[in-house]
């Protein structure tokens, strides 16, 4: 007998029929002799709708009350799904995050899970129940208040439960059939990746491939939980997220990620002092400004220019913070360039294959794509390009790295 955690995302429980369809998948696993814990998201676009409602009442609603509001979405789903299981004659019981023993840090709207007391779930499983848990929520022990785990956080609930319950599998049911080489809506030749490593998936998720919550991938890596991302609408095998991608080992590039809405800011003629970078980025960080790629250009012995990229939505906040601190930092002026996008290649085979970045730059320059910024890690290269060049860049790179042809790299 195995123990399985199944997670169903919003689309997979978006209507009564879909909830009944999810119930069938759960029952299948139970009939195969498994103990099953289910984690669900709010139905369809419920969470977005609740966010919108709050926005009509207040521009800046209390985070505590936002958590109170948003957690209702998942509660609707756990009750309805459990009723659907009862209807089919199965023993099942729903639990909110706090009833399931999920404790979080004291950080409304984006809390991390600190601990899970799994006693109640274990008891229920022993008594032959299917346990249906609300994703994305937990309790802050010191205040006894409800917290959410950040948008998309139900994935993290599922993986965390799989870890404490020592589950044999964690299946993530979603509205796509797996993780793709790149977004299939943008590139027609994108194909499903059979297997991807935790590190590659983490890069892809952090780079804006929305299929998995990055923290869920981190959790899975830390506890060696194999995830399968698959569709709730078909029986097709999905994508395995695991330690070493088992097929197609060490592809130089396994996938491409991209996101628009990026602005590059340049702070010019800052005094070229030893603490220039630390002063600037400490001020930005303490004002909650999240920066991504950073480039420093030392102009001469006295002066330096520093550029960094941000999400365009925080441009005015960033400008304000910089203006307020201009005297303190001693720079001359600020310039910025909007309508940019980040295009990235990800693959663990890069570690042992020199020249991957060069191939990328060549492919882009052959298409007259101007690269504005670059950043790398061991297994990714990100470039910032004009937003209007984004899709062209992705298509070119998809071809260059033969992502639709499944060509393994010679070692
Ligand atoms: N319902 C929440 C959201 O839409 C959590 C989740 O679905 O993972 O962000
Ligand atoms: Mg999700």
UniProtKB/TrEMBL annotation:
UniProt record, GO biological process: diaminopimelate biosynthetic process; homoserine biosynthetic process; lysine biosynthetic process via diaminopimelate; threonine biosynthetic process
EC numbers on record: 2.7.2.4
Keyword terms, alphabetized: Amino-acid biosynthesis, ATP-binding, Diaminopimelate biosynthesis, Kinase, Lysine biosynthesis, Nucleotide-binding, Repeat, Transferase
Gene3D superfamilies found in the cross-reference section: Acetylglutamate kinase-like, VC0802-like
Matching InterPro entries: AceGlu_kinase-like_sf, ACT-like_dom_sf, ACT_Aspartokinase, ACT_dom, AKii-LysC-BS, Asp/Glu/Uridylate_kinase, Asp_kin_monofn, Asp_kinase
Binding annotation for ATP: 7-10, 174-175, 180, 185
Class of this enzyme: transferase
Keyword Transferase in record: yes
Protein's pathway: Amino-acid biosynthesis; L-threonine biosynthesis; L-threonine from L-aspartate: step 1/5; Amino-acid biosynthesis; L-lysine biosynthesis via DAP pathway; (S)-tetrahydrodipicolinate from L-aspartate: step 1/4; Amino-acid biosynthesis; L-methionine biosynthesis via de novo pathway; L-homoserine from L-aspartate: step 1/3
Binding site for substrate: 47, 74
SUPFAM superfamilies (UniProt xref): ACT-like, Carbamate kinase-like
Gene Ontology CC, one term: cytosol
Cell membrane listed as a keyword: no
Catalyzed reactions per annotation: L-aspartate + ATP = 4-phospho-L-aspartate + ADP
GO molecular function, one term: aspartate kinase activity
Residue ranges of domain ACT in the record: 265-348
Subunit structure: Tetramer consisting of 2 isoforms Alpha (catalytic and regulation) and of a homodimer of 2 isoforms Beta (regulation).
Function: Catalyzes the phosphorylation of the beta-carboxyl group of aspartic acid with ATP to yield 4-phospho-L-aspartate, which is involved in the branched biosynthetic pathway leading to the biosynthesis of amino acids threonine, isoleucine and methionine.
UniProt family annotation: Belongs to the aspartokinase family.
Full protein name: Aspartokinase
């Amino acid at each position: 007998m195995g123990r399985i955690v199944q997670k169903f995302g919003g689309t997979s429980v978006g209507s009564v029929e879909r909830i009944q369809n999810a119930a069938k998948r759960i029952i299948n696993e139970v009939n195969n002799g498994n103990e099953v814990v289910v984690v669900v998201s709010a139905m369809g676009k419920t969470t977005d709708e609740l966010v919108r409602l709050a926005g009509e009442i207040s521009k800046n609603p209390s985070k505590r009350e936002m958590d109170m509001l948003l957690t209702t979405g998942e509660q609707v789903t756990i009750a309805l799904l459990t009723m659907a299981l009862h209807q089919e004659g199965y023993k099942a019981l729903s639990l909110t995050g706090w009833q399931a023993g999920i404790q979080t840090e004291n950080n409304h709207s984006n809390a991390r899970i600190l601990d899970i007391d799994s006693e109640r779930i274990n008891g229920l499983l022993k008594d032959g129940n299917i346990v249906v848990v609300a994703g994305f929520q937990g309790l802050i022990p010191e205040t006894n208040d409800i917290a959410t785990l950040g948008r998309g956080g139900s994935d993290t609930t599922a993986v965390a439960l799989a870890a404490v319950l020592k589950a044999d599998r964690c299946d993530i049911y979603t509205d796509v059939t797996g993780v793709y080489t790149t977004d299939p809506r943008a590139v027609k030749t994108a194909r499903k990746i059979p297997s991807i490593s935790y590190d590659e998936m983490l890069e892809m998720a952090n780079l804006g491939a929305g299929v998995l919550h990055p923290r869920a991938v981190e959790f899975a890596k830390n506890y060696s939980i194999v995830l399968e991302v698959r569709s709730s609408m078909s029986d097709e095998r999905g994508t395995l997220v695991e330690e070493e991608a088992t097929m197609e080992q060490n592809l130089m590039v396994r996938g491409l990620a991209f996101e628009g809405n990026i602005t590059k800011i340049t702070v010019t003629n800052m005094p070229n002092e030893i603490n220039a970078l630390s002063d600037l980025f400490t001020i930005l960080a303490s004002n909650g400004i999240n920066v991504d790629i950073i480039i420093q250009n030392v102009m001469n012995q006295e002066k330096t220019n520093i550029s960094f990229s941000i999400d365009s939505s925080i441009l005015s906040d960033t400008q304000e913070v910089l203006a307020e601190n201009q005297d303190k930092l001693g720079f001359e002026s600020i310039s910025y360039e909007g309508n940019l996008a980040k295009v990235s290649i990800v693959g663990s085979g890069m570690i042992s294959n020199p020249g991957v970045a060069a191939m990328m730059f060549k492919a882009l320059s052959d298409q007259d794509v101007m690269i504005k910024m670059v950043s790398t890690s061991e297994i990714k290269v990100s470039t910032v390009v004009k937003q209007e060049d984004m899709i062209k860049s992705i298509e070119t790179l998809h071809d260059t790295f033969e992502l639709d042809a499944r060509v393994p790299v010679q070692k």
